[in-house]
Design goal:
Largest sheet: 7 strands, mixed
Number of helices: 0
Strand content: over 45%
Shape: elongated
Helix content: under 10%
Order of helices and strands: EEEEEEEEEE
Distance between the termini: 70 Å
Radius of gyration: 17 Å
Length: 131
Amino acid sequence: MELSSLVADIDGHQRKVVMSAVRPVRSIYGTEGIALLGGRTLPFVVKRAWNAPAGNWPEAWYLVDPTTREVLFEGPQKIVSIWGLLSWTEFSDEVDPRLPLEPGNYLIVFALGGVQGGQMEVEAREVPTPP
């Protein structure tokens, strides 16, 4: 057996988001993205699943303008318990404040222990006034 076959093939940090989704709280506004009414966000949910070493980690996510890389909103920062590399650990946050936001595409950037573990594109779009 060659020595190279005994070495783990690890590329980068072992903190990765393996699943993520953003959707309006109320399904009347769609099943994905951020719904806007009058240029302000309606409540939305940010879900993600981490694959990372077991332990307690500071975790956060950020709504970012992809052009300028400006952070427009910081999600709640908290200490989370990760189960380990052999499983996914899922988290979800509901964002209630009505944030001012223009229609368009944005990034949600995820961080664990101060290291970016992934990002996803999300579309913010105006929705009709509910009946």
